[in-house]
Design a protein that fits this description.
Blueprint: H1 5-25, H2 41-50, H3 55-75, H4 84-91, E1 95-97, E2 103-105, H5 108-127, H6 155-172, H7 175-190, H8 194-198, E3 205-208, E4 211-217, E5 223-227, H9 230-247, H10 278-291, H11 302-315, H12 320-327, H13 332-338, H14 342-347, H15 350-359
Antiparallel strand pairs: 1-2, 3-4, 4-5
Amino acid sequence: MIDNTGSRELALRQATTESLAEAVELLPALPPADPADRYAIRHVTMLWLSVDKSEHTRRAYYADLAAWLAWCARTGLDPLRARRADVDAWKTTLTVTGRDGLPRPAAPSTLARTLAGVSSWYRYLQSNDVTDNNPIGAVTRPKRAKASPLPALDERSTAALLDHVESRAARLDSEAAWRDAALVALLFYTGLRVSGITTATVADLDTDSGHTILRYTGKGGQRDFVPLVAPAVRPLARYLAARSARFGVPAERLTGPLLATTPHPHDPAKPGGKALRQRDVWQALRRFATAAGLPAATSISPHTARRTTGTLLLAHNVPVQKVQDLLGHADIRTTRDRYDAHRHKLDSSPAHTLAQILAEHRGQR
């Protein structure tokens, strides 16, 4: 009943390669694939998508590239002969669909991300001598806003959510409920990106110097680890114990995803055991936040947990370098500028100290 992890990973890689090949075949404006040419542009494009990228990044880069190539096809432009003026013309046409279903100009952050994705493709082609030109290299990119538009929970709301899911698990005492409690605890106590948790396996749990750790795959495919504190280990241990009891094996013999779907109670064709999807995590968080009575329930997302982790640590004077290391940011400016919530910048502003200093010397207090 326990899957062979190595075989599953090999099968997953093969399936990913096949699906990428099919997707790249659908891209417009590129010459037909040439099986005899290992440096044919479609083959190199498939390698670009597959190397050192998470599934989320692959989807985003593919969508960005497809949008650019579709515009090239519509305008009769060979993408390998494109110039900066062509990219400038294209970016003015980029739109997104609002909640009302109507198109509107893409936000600066969307434009910057799209241009970065397509530029990455051109750089990869250049590094393989497929082209000499990157028309996006000189294009002016919109500056990203320093303040993140994504919400962060305050301490009370975070504690209320964690208490709710763990109390729910204790009340229901089911495998699924303890898995959900472990999921929320892992998100908020580690600050990991959701992909780091959904792609983790049971084998990624380990110990080091007396600490329980979780090894995970970070952004760009980099492997790293994070310590698991007791409030996260507690629901995770209960979940794995329930899961191993269902299989009739010791917990140390479990394999497969760290957090997995459970068997459907009425459909034998759905035996569970699959890794949670990011959409599953998103929906679960909103459901639990609503049940816990959080005001931000309608806007909460997996990244809310990550931003909350960084925001709360910075608000309590944890050195920004340590927060950067925990969150795995390559650039400390990301930690400093996008994870320090406005309310905490206001509360801790030195302007308050200045007012106190001058108040002692002013006639009006």
